[in-house]
Amino acid sequence: MDVATSIRDSLPQTDEIIVQYLDGLYADADEEYDSIMSTTKGMLESFATTEEKAAFQELMEKLGEYLSEQLDSKRASQPGGSGSGGLAKLDRVMEMSKTMSTTRAVMEGVDLSSVNKGKETRVDLKKLEKQEAKLKAKIDKRAKRVGGELYEGSKLIEATKRQQAYEELFMKVNPLDARSSSKGKSKDIHLVNIDVNFSSHRILSNANLTLAYGRRYGLIGRNGVGKSTLLRHIALRELAVPSHITILFVEQEIVGDDTPAIESVLKADVWRDKLMTEEKELNAQLSTLETEGDGSKLSEEAKEIASARLVEVHQKLSEIDAETGPARAAALLAGLGFTEEDQHRPTKTFSGGWRMRLALARALFVKPDLLMLDEPSNHIDLNALAWLEDYLQTWPGTILVVSHDRAFLDAVATDIVLQRAERLEYFKGNFSQFYATKTERDKNARKEYETQKAYREHLQAFIDRWRYNANRAAQAQMKIKILEKLPDLEEPEADDTERFKFPETEKISPPLLQLNDVQFGYTPEKIILDKVDIDVGLDSRIAVIGPNGAGKSTLIKLLIGELKPMAGHLTRNGRLRIGYFAQHHVDTLDPSLSPVKYLQSKFPGKTDLEYRSHLGAFGITGLTGMQTIGTLSGGQKSRVSFAALSLLNPHVLLLDEGLDALMHALQVWNGGVILISHDERFITTVSTELWVCNEGKVQKYYGDVTSYKPGGPGSGPADGPPPPGEEDETSRPGAGEHYSGNDLTTTASGSLASSQASKLLNDYLILNHRPGMDLQKVSFPTFVLEPRSMLERITDFMSHPELVFGAENIPEPEERFIQVLSYYLSGWHIKPKGVKKPYNPVLGEIFRCRYEYPDGTKGFYIAEQVSHHPPISAYFYISPHNKVRIAGELRPKSRFLGNSVATMMEGENRVFLMGRPDDGEYVLGLPNMFARGILFGTMILELGDTTMCKNEATGMSCAVEFKTKGWMGGQYNLMTGKIKKNGTTEIGSIAGRWSHQLDYKDSRNGKQRVLFNASQQKKSMVQKQVVPESEQEPNESRRLWSKLTAAIANKDMEAAQAAKLEVEESQRALAREREAKGIVHKQRFFELRDGLWQAKIEMLEDPDEMVAAVEKWMWAPPPQV
């Protein structure tokens, strides 16, 4: 009897893991009949529906009969059990303890189950299932695996080595009905008390795995802790992940064959591929039956069956959105850098890095509920990495990613999972937030430990001194009782601070390594590198960046002498020793040798102790050095490679990817370094020169990695700043945007002020502020202020009215909402790069301006500080002929939380389309800003919040997520959000950088369009018209703060402090005067109505009349006090 088949046929809803467990239990039945049948009933009964009760009873009877036969045959085969069933009489007394020690001790283990035979189990069935699953796994490992292969991950390793196994594994892990069965079910994963083992090593013990659907988790931990092993266990459902959750794990590059790249991506969704194939077969079968059918009953039945199956297939294809497959695959490949021509090339023609991109594209195409990535940034260039970061930020499902790239984790992760000490610890936020939180937590834990330790030592000292003193003995006894009742004191786990050390290299005379006017190509028709000039010395710290396939690896091979130039000269010192490490070198290590034996085979002549000591300097300590290399993690294998590399005692290191622990070693080493990496932090820390390899050229780049990446100021050598000595003040990158006169102008002096002010700010913070100090104690210099008032800062959101003008003429409410939303999102790009905080307005301060549009229409804006305690800024904008009115207020609140400060910008923009009165108001929220203390002389600012934009009349809403980091300004400037109707129906999504481009993707048809492009629309920005300061009232923003603005422009810190103090003191004097005279401040342009500050002006229907009324109201003489 096939137990597994019987269970599947009778109870098809039974989980596969239960089926496999019971199959193994009956195959190796060695317990009592009642115990096994009780367990079986308890497990299967919950899967039987009301209609299947009869089938369940029948199945239990069959299993009972089969079990009886199994047990009878086993008893008959045992010594003394030839069917007699009688008891054997002992001829002498036996001492069982001695028997156990002398017989069972020499076997593999004690059969504990035999001790408790005949006893009814009281163990919870779920726990029993978990333990028995482990036992079965061990039995399977011993009995079925050949050659002593390790249990964990072996299925996945074999599957990835053989391409054909991918389909089998995919269908097993992700059943066809997983998507349809997931409707209405939670896709959160919450597994408690899980254990994960790697051979005899415990990876996790009683840990909890919690992954909320839609969150993006970064899994971090030291090398060898078992991160990749955990991912493999999840991927193979060795952990009990709910069966309706689809899973995909991207670990290795795909195997190259003749399949075109785009076809490879389409085939990644195995069920789609199989259903499409079946559809073709069914259509062919029906066509044959139509033309060759004889009209018999048999022929008609065959048609009926084929037609019915074809309907099912079409339904399944519709559910998985198969029709849009080719378009989605092409878009993914394009995003990862594949040209249209590349998409149709066979996969075997691509390099390893490009095949890894294909593996990523395949995973993204499948769209699993849980996507797991292992070091995705290792094999893709910076351009593709930036695209991947943006793409993953809008991923609808759950992501679990292992990465050592902190910048990548900062951009992608919403949560960090720290794996250490056989546990999983969870932290909200990205890596930077995790690091700050963990540092603070560890600091507090260490402080608490030291306090408790000192208290215990104090008690012990008292006891030791007075224990045997008659006068103090009672007190000593009391202290002893207190000490005994204290809980065990555990020292906080110290951070792993792994640091490598390369041996000092001897100096040799230059030139060491030079390429002069070198040209190389595998054929004369296809030149890869042309006119390359590069000089490498002992002091070189060169990072080579550029797209995959541009020739970076070819450059390295030329430098190490593996390739010969077609033209030009390669000069190499005869004494030069070069150490070369590439990621794929790890795979060439002999997996059957231990690290010690491997070094011994490569560099004989030392003792085992010397080899182990050398490995210890690279993080391979203890027994790890004696394990076989095949059992080590990827990071540990890299350490073995670096340990071997250092024994060469090289003068120059060429690294194709590196490790975090290498950074310090390379900084202090006295040899030369050439680095190919995609890790922004690694490049920034190690290198002093940046070279870009692209389009056959290798050129020095004078910017930094941030400016090179897409979204930075440049994307290649031509876009970088000129070499030192060739620049003028107007050509510097990030030239200061200086507010002067009536509009935004860029000047040389502004650039100089901006760059020098930034340097002064760096110096000031480093000299005066301690790392992690309380922000309430921080005194910031005045030049961190943006040179304009908050009241004027609000006008940035009025600078692109063309994005909302005419919205009332759009019939679809969804498109009207998107139009208003684009106006709001566009306002953020006006923020000058690197600016800090606008001036806080004072009570009664006003700012007013007008806009003149190309079509002759006008717009008017006015803002007033209507309250000082609490601070409230009210503002109003109107363009009568364009039928747009905007009102709002800001209520900033700051909270100091030790090493961080949060500024809550309560308030909103309220947009009215006067041509659509039924729409009511479009309410656009404002995000919060968080300042994360001083860390190593750096003020960490972050704009990270989700705000709601909505229109209640049409039911439209969008939760916009802001994400910004950087030095007192924005580096990432990310925005994402989903537009919904009535809170549930998704209409589309927005994503992008407000400083560059925002895109909108329609969820209903998959079409994508540009919502806002900063570089293009900046040209059409309408400038505000402000009257000269000499004609302004004393309390108008520009005149009020003119001295402070001038002082900041001149970088005169003392004058700036004095000017700021002068305005604040004058306001305090006015407040004291009003209080003394009993005068209550009255707002001039706004009044409080229905809980909101609203403009004191009547709305008129005629646009011309409204323009005249607004002009008269805004520029009326101030009232006499």
Mind explaining what this structure looks like?
It is a single chain. With 1121 residues, the protein is of the alpha+beta class. Helices cover 37% and strands 23% of the residues. It contains 35 helices and 37 strands. The strands form eight sheets. Strands 22, 23, 24, 25, 26, 27, 28, 29, 30, 31, 32, 33, 34 and 35 form a 14-stranded antiparallel sheet that branches. Strand 1 and strand 2 form a beta hairpin. The longest helix is centred in the middle third of the chain and has 36 residues. The protein is globular and about 115 Å long.
Question: Topology, pairings included?
Answer:
Elements: H1 3-10, H2 16-27, H3 33-44, H4 53-77, H5 96-102, H6 112-115, H7 125-144, H8 154-161, H9 164-173, H10 178-181, E1 189-198, E2 201-211, E3 216-220, H11 227-235, E4 247-250, H12 261-268, H13 270-292, H14 297-319, H15 325-335, H16 352-366, E5 370-374, H17 382-393, E6 398-402, H18 406-412, E7 415-420, E8 423-428, H19 431-466, H20 473-485, E9 513-523, E10 526-536, E11 541-545, H21 552-560, E12 567-572, E13 578-582, H22 595-602, H23 608-616, H24 634-646, E14 652-656, H25 662-668, E15 672-676, H26 680-686, E16 689-694, E17 697-701, H27 705-708, E18 737-740, E19 743-746, H28 748-768, E20 785-789, H29 790-793, H30 813-826, E21 837-839, E22 846-852, E23 858-867, E24 872-879, E25 884-896, E26 901-913, E27 921-925, E28 929-935, E29 938-951, E30 956-967, E31 974-981, E32 985-993, E33 997-1002, E34 1008-1013, H31 1014-1017, E35 1024-1025, H32 1037-1040, H33 1042-1049, H34 1053-1077, E36 1086-1089, E37 1092-1095, H35 1103-1114
Helix pairs in contact: 1-2, 1-4, 2-3, 2-7, 3-4, 8-9, 12-16, 13-14, 15-16, 19-20, 22-23, 33-34
